Amino acid sequence: MRLGIISALAEEQNGLIEAMESPVKASYGMRGYTAGKLWNVDTVCVLSRIGKVAAAMTASILVEKFGVTHIVFTGVAGSGDVGVRVGDIVVADSLVQHDMDASPLFSRFEIPLTGLSHIASDRELTRRLSSAARDFLQSEPGSSQFHRGLIASGDQFINKRSQIAALKDALPELLAVEMEGAAVAQVCFELGIPFSVIRTISDNANEDAAVDFMHFVQTVASRYAYGILKNFCIPT
Ligand code: SAH
């Protein structure tokens, strides 16, 4: 396995590059890629920046130029369900692009010419990542919960109750909203690369989202990413 680790923001990945053995840096297409051994796993870390196009480009380059065989996206997200709280972890079983709508030519959310609206993450990678996340939460004080299910991505920071309610109406199984995961899912599906997406909930996608997001990203996000990826690379 050569593992690609993508996050949108530096705070979501801080510490991982420092933990790498003999890191080698390369710059390509305005992104910095760092390759090395992360707890004995051959890894390439990169920040995609924000949004679906940025994430799709980064995932493609990880595969085509840096030869990764598996991809994990780790970052933060807004809650898409009342039972999913700030500090909880959501691992995607499947992902949907919530701003994809080519109706009436295709049904809402369907990615034209794939026949799919929901793209499933890789079962084995997702099982391993889920177990890493559960172990991490067990070692944490507090009452953060683990969830597995649907994550929706779109080129919008969701910060209104009406917006998140409308999405939940259209996608009742929704657990979290973010801006990159489903783009990585499409690239990996089309290139035949196993992938998984893990998100820590930073906000409730409502009017308080911007403040909650900033606070969470600065204080907690990287500690979660570090702890979970460490468990992932060194399975018990
Ligand atoms: N003002 C911030 C913008 C971050 S956008 C900045 O300049 O850094 C939010 C990022 O976190 C995206 O990468 C997205 O994937 C995730 N995210 C967290 N909460 C979100 C929400 N409520 N809606 C959409 N994306 C969210």
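^ S-adenosyl-L-homocysteine complex. The beta strands are 2-7, 20-28, 31-38, 41-47, 70-79, 89-97, 118-120, 146-153, 174-178, 195-203. The pocket of S-adenosyl-L-homocysteine is lined by residues 8-9, 50, 75-78, 157-159, 177-180, 202-203, 205, 209, 213 (CB under 6 Å).
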